[in-house]
Fold:
Amino acid sequence: MTVWDRPEPPTRPVPLDRERIVAAAIALADEGGLEAVSLRKVAARLDAGPMRLYGYISTKEELFDLMVDEVYAEILPEEQPGDWREALRVHAHRTRQATLRHQWLADLLGRRPSLGPNAMAVTEVTLSALDGLADLDTVMRAVETVSAYITGAIRREIANLRAERATGLSRRDWQRASGPHVSRMLATGRFPALARFVHEGTEVDAETSFATGLDWVLDAVAAKLARPPA
Amino acid sequence: MTVWDRPEPPTRPVPLDRERIVAAAIALADEGGLEAVSLRKVAARLDAGPMRLYGYISTKEELFDLMVDEVYAEILPEEQPGDWREALRVHAHRTRQATLRHQWLADLLGRRPSLGPNAMAVTEVTLSALDGLADLDTVMRAVETVSAYITGAIRREIANLRAERATGLSRRDWQRASGPHVSRMLATGRFPALARFVHEGTEVDAETSFATGLDWVLDAVAAKLARPPA
DNA sequence: ATTTCTGCAATACGCTGTATCGCAACAGTA
DNA sequence: TACTGTTGCGATACAGCGTATTGCAGAAAT
Structure:
């Protein structure tokens, strides 16, 4: 019985874990958006059959949850600035930047409660930045209000960005004259105010308008933190 | 050639239009969520083959666009109150109420720019409520900031609502003790601030917290409208 | 050496969005 | 009235999806 007679041992399947699965899924999503993420394709990237994944997750939705939490790790600030306002600003901008890197996050933000360890760590940091500046309920309201703004603003920004990419027109051009639908609608005269805004408004870059709206909201929070619980 | 010999004339297919298609789709979504909307099921409700729909829409995404615009018709206020603040408040609450009636709207809000006639009419009304109170850019920023808040807050509310429905636990119970995952995480001591908020915070009903956050944002807007363009 | 257990792969099912194709009924013309 | 062109519908088809089920091979346990 020489070596040559004996068959090679069967190749054991590559070991898997959630980390590798999530990384593969994120890579797919970064390349082709959320809709490019299918359990079959994720598994294929890992040289596995689709059903293998069900040992690690029990539903596709859970995979999305893991992906989101993985990005929250990028959002978690490395060091916490002292000022509450700066802390919230940093959180907002880190969230925005992470979403620009992983645009599919815009589709998932706010879709389900985020209970992963990284998301909770982010919440912890944010809450503790405001802790003690007002009663608990006020602080909670502050954080929720700011993060509602963040979610909504980011979603709109990504939606516009995709629309521009799909039509090849900048938001401005597309409204002003090039977008046949919109210009036709405006020409009806049924939307005089809207028409004025479209034609006479200034184009502002996305980051600035995000930051400005954020500052307004932070001003509102500041006012509530200043005065004691209503 | 008696009547009996002649066959009945072939039944002509029921005439279709976008209105009927969208109504059927909305009915399906109201009953079973967005994922219950398939072109086949919509068509079946109308006694038609799936491919028939492609005469009226060219993609499922377009059907969603039509559905959203249909709901914007419910959001459009019947009469415009004079005060800008009241106008924005009404807009926010009508949007929220519409989303509570059609919870799938939460999945679509902010996903794509809304360019349908009803959405534009809503924008027109909103913009004109603020028109003249500040320069165009400030007004635009105000409307966008408020609507970012609205989108984000509604999404979170619906997300929580769905989580409660899925687990059978109220948000509070679910965090406090009943949710095994969350309580285990809090017990690790890695999230002290979060733990305090969960345990000592008051439960506030969704409508109140929506309204409160909204008021804060409106306060911020008021401050910017008061002073001339920065 | 034999049995039990574990976990992977293959197969399968019902469903999806949509491209293609052939035909039947209408409109227009001779 | 006969014919022809066009339109739009239905059927068929395809590739892909999430996931339930099944069977089997290797590892572990006796």
